[in-house]
């Protein structure tokens, strides 16, 4: 192999090793901070939003009107 190929191979191996070490390190830190952490999912119930998206149109200040045959929810 040429010297250039050896350097390329070493660079690739070093990059893979660094990626593995960083990802495992992040998992360890995450586990130490809060092992029971789960991301929260927020959603609004239909009773809050309304079938005609009145909250949506009020928040972004538009005059959007759904088609008469549109079904939401």
What this model shows, in words?
- The structure is a single chain.
- By secondary structure, the protein is mostly helical.
- It folds into two domains: 1-38; 43-73, no CATH class.
- The protein contains three helices and no strands.
- The chain has helices at residues 3-33, 46-49, 54-60.
- The longest helix has 31 residues, at 3-33.
- The protein starts with a helix and ends in a 13-residue tail after the last helix.
Give short descriptive properties of this protein.
73 residues; elongated
Characterize the main sheet. none
N→C terminal distance: 63 Å
Strand percent estimate: under 5%
Structural class by helix and strand composition: mainly alpha
The structural domain count equals 2
The Rg value, from CA coordinates, equals: 26 Å
Low-confidence stretches: none
Note the total helix count: 3
Would you list the SSEs in sequence order as H and E? HHH
Mean pLDDT: 69
What proportion of the residues is helical, as a percent range? Answer: 55-70%
Shape: elongated
Q: Could you outline the blueprint of secondary structure elements for this entry?
A:
Layout lengths: L2 H31 L12 H4 L4 H7 L13
């Amino acid at each position: 192999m040429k010297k250039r190929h050896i350097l390329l191979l070493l660079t690739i191996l070093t990059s893979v090793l660094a990626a593995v070490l960083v990802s495992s390190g992040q998992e360890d830190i995450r586990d130490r901070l809060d092992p029971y952490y789960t991301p929260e999912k927020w959603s609004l119930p239909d009773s809050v939003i309304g079938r005609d998206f009145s909250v949506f149109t009020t928040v972004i200040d538009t005059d959007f009107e759904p088609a008469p045959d549109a079904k939401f929810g």
